[in-house]
Amino acid sequence: MKFVYDRTQSDIDRVKELNQKYLARTITDEEKAEWASGIKGALNVSDLNRIESNTAQIASFLAVTVQTKTWNYNDIPRASDYLRIRNNVQAVRDAWAALSDTPETPTQPLSTYQKWNDIERILHDVNYVYERTMNSYYYCDTEIYAGEGAGIL
Predict the structure, then answer these.
(1) What secondary structure does DSSP assign to 34-53, as a single string?
(2) If DSSP codes are grouped into helix, strand and coil, which group holds residue 138?
(3) How far apart are CA 21 and CA 11, in angstroms?
(4) What is the value of pTM for the model shown?
(5) What is the pLDDT of residues 106-143, one digit of tens each?
(6) 46: CB partners within 8 A, 6+ apart
(7) Residue spans per domain, the chain
């Protein structure tokens, strides 16, 4: 799974700059390619699909029921979509342990890059703790090894 939770103000500023160049019709082919590659400063269909997919995968590990959507290029997110995403992340966060510095689930509206960083950081951290926990078990044939050094034969 991939997570993006390192968006910065400079990423946002770059998007604004590219928007202005597009409107002024001075954007270069290289800048168009940069924009099309899924620039971090803009929430786009690839971001939404990554978040939805990660949420669904983590929820399935934890046996949590969530409702997700596969986004298409022409889809326009509604406030209800953002609320659903937020509630899904809250359900995942509530279902498993997280790190001590994992942020709280952000409140609506999800209108800042910091809140989207928090959404993806929560998913990352819950997944990280889950994977570490699952990888810490030792199995002996069909049983979990509980550290017994000797037993009755």
Answers:
(1) HHHTT-TTS--HHHHHHHHH
(2) coil
(3) 16
(4) 0.84
(5) 999 999 999 999 999 999 999 999 999 888 766 656 66
(6) 38
(7) 9-136
